[in-house]
Amino acid sequence: MKIQYASYQDTIDFLQQSMSAHPHLIRLQSIGETWEGRPIMLVTVSLDVTYADDKPALLYTGSIHAREWIGNELAIKFIQYIVDNYRFNPKLQTALTRNTLYMVPCLNPDGFEYSRNHFSFWRKNRRNNGDGTFGVDLNRNFDAKFMRNQNTQSNTYGGPHAFSEPETSAIRDFVESHENIRIALDYHSQGNVFFPAHKFNHEVEIEGTDLNVLCANMNNEIKKVTGRQYGIHRGKPPAQLIHGSGREYYYRRGIIATVVEVGTRNIPDYMKNMAQSVAENIPAVAYALGEAINYSPLAPSRVEEFTIKDVGRDTVELEWQYQERDDIYFEVYRSEHNKSPCSEENLVAITKSLSFLDTQLKSGHFYFYNIRAVDKVTKIKSPFSPELRLKTTLADNECGRTLFPAREQVGYLSQNYLSKNKEHFGYNSMFIGIDKKRGISIGVVAFDLSTIPEGSHIATAQLFLYPMNRVAAKIEKYGEWSISIIDASLVDDIYDFSIIQEAKPLHTLGQTIESDKMTQGIWLRWSFNGVERSLLESLLTQQTLLLRIQGPQSLPVGNDSQVMQFDIGYGSFGGGLHYRPNLELIYQLPERSDTVIASSCNTIYKDKVVTDKLASGFDADGEIVYGQLAFELNECLAPDRTVFTQACLTLYSTNCLASAKDVRFTVELVELKDVDFKHVKQRQKIEYIGYEVSNEQLKERTAHNFIFDSYSLKELARLHKAQAPLYFIIRATAESQACDALVNWQDCNDAQPAKLHVEYIERRVEALPAPTHLQTQVDNGVVKLTWLNPDNADLVGSFVVRNRFHPPRSPFDGVKLYGGPDQYTFDNFGNADIEKYYAVFSYDHVPNYSQPTVIHYPGRGNG
Hints:
CATH architecture of the largest domain: 3-Layer(aba) Sandwich
Structural class: alpha+beta
Largest sheet: 12 strands, antiparallel
CATH topology of the largest domain: Aminopeptidase
Low-confidence stretches: none
Strand content: 25-35%
Number of helices: 13
Mean pLDDT: 94
Radius of gyration: 34 Å
CATH superfamily of the largest domain: Zn peptidases
Helix content: 10-25%
Oligomer: single chain
Distance between the termini: 61 Å
């Protein structure tokens, strides 16, 4: 027995003492009796506790599994925290004034005491099953998809029927008589992960964002204390989901519910590990308590139709609907990672408008947006709308690729399974780290780079891996996981453990992940730095990026495992395409260049035009004299697949001014109807090119470069598309009236004529037409989608996405189902009974995505 931990009687004694000392704050009651006659104690905490049942409430349950002592221990420490701090901590005072805490420190008293005194690994309660076995897994005994199991000896035996046990029927009766419960936390061990509730349909639910944000914000509080990050993982198809759990029972009743798995052992070293787990979870529970009111009838209603109005390369415009109310404003949150907190740090807008324009974003990057309404008087907040996920468009000079490994090029190699290692590729998941069974295990992922042309410049590169299970990473704060680039040309057999293990890294990616940051259910992202991107560019000639993923390679005495499991998206238990390791690249194709000599040049006086001469300044009467020149771009530069990346106009001066006046010369890109003084005066100026040239600069040098800015490059492309000549005006300006201040520039016939130098890349500029004839039908219980791709040589494929709540307006606004050249796909992981929207986007090699073709699917039987 671990003497540092409280017994069940110690817990009751503490709660009774706390109630006696703080009767206005704490109320204690028994909600039932166990098989062995122990009371199931529930403590109610609120200011004033007399009115506790009239307030929105958080339900906390702990130690439903006997050996998971953390639930009971945290409950004690949390009550002590409240007692010690509620008089002066304003956040805690507000939470307790507005909300109520219902806390069952131990929902399995009999099993808990049996675990403490007889067999520490005991999990179930102490029902006598009548066949020589004892115990029911209480977290399989609720009526949420209860599953009958005849094996009474099993650790997950769910009992003869739902709610057969006094413990589960007691909490059921309490919950069903307390409609004020809005959030439920069920504390377990082990795993350092949140398991939000689900409805067994493998589809996004309206409360899905509420669940993820609650967990992410609790995670944020945990991280402040110890730096540790918990995973957030709801379970995914086609894996079996837990049946008969309390979490799903609460969720079915409209309660925002999650399991919190704490630590890496059921009964850890109290001083070293349990004390940390308790300390980091106290502010997390306090945060959740304060959120209960935001999911109550007192809260504003959820924002509706939160969707994307427009996506640009560095801007996003969002819009939504809400009933007109003067007392409501909206908070908009933006993050760059999935399952991120919504906190002050990423609050990007507080607005009363029904739209928001976000600016200064990065091109080709993922962003996640959340919104909630706020009552400006009470500050009570609404539940969240479903999260928006999008990707900004690529800049004009960029291309992008999302690369996935082929089935035979992603897997893991184990030291003790040499003959079976090839079977670990393309099958379910990667196990990386060390354990007694497998020995050292390393991951291997190879990406085919052949679609990226040699000489391309890699602007950004990001590797994504999905950790699916960390339960076998058992040692707190031990070991790191890292990724190395190895030379594929020196690897004869990627299925050979020794070859991969002993390969000398070309480079190890700069970011390693420590064990307490190695979380379940949250994508890990490695962003390549400049050195790593340069190495990636050099590997384009090999056409392969070969990665080795490694974890700790030795174990402390007495430990048997430190292994992290990653999804690979293949196999019967893989999560499919959107859980596959992937490499996100943004790159620029190799640049080409062209230099064009001016096709004409003129000097334009007030009363005359001098052809084939180029001068500008002021005449003897102080009248302005314009220089004008024109260029015609190479007809071989096809406007629909030419992107200008740089442009420079170079002029050569032949003299400078004797005058002491400050005279400067500017160049304008203009549109002209005719080349005479009147039309030049009335010209439509498009943009200044580069910076002005002073007389001092004329004295220093003869060559003058006028660099196009980003707007000028766009105008250059527009004029080229219209096959219009490029007209430039050289105009003089002076601080006061100047006379006889004329600068001559070398003209078209001189040895150094004016020239226009352009850098460009060849890539398609415009998106393709959208697919047509999108249709749905149910085929063997699965929704099948068919469509017609546009008939275009540039077509690479179509991208299919599903969204339950609104028509997708971005290819990333929902769950990706397919990307490729076919004209059909199946929604294999969806629920054919549920209403939703599907969208199909065509895309080219850039990729540019078309406008969506959308269909509303009414759900099977509702059409």
